[in-house]
Design goal:
The protein folds into two domains: 88 residues; 40 residues, no CATH class. The termini are far apart. The chain contains four helices and two strands. 73% of the residues lie in helices and 3% in strands. The chain has a two-stranded antiparallel ribbon. By secondary structure, it is mainly alpha-helical.
Length: 130
Amino acid sequence: MKYSKTKARERRSRLCEIEEKLKERQEIFDANPTEDNCIELETITCEYNSLYDYITEGHAMRSRVNWYEYGEKNNKYFLNLESRKMSNSCVRRIVDKHGKLITNPKLILSGLHDFYRELYSNATCPTITF
């Protein structure tokens, strides 16, 4: 038990450290959105997500134990887990038609909207002749 408690304490402190680094890198990236800052931010974000996924797997294992012991259904937990993972998957950066890297979420949405508007507009549809 002592070993497990020590490992859990270390894991929690590592999670707090990574959260702080993530906040710092996000502020640096917001102030200066260069590609190097973007790569560092994504690296720390991946590390945070992997550590958080490990914690989530522990919750899933414990919920299955409850299901086996008490006959409970754990569908709600896993549906919420799936929704959380879906909300985390998003477009973080794109390159616009001028070759500029865009990382601002509002500009990304605008860029995607413009791309698909041009793609599906009637003016750009090729005519097929036989």
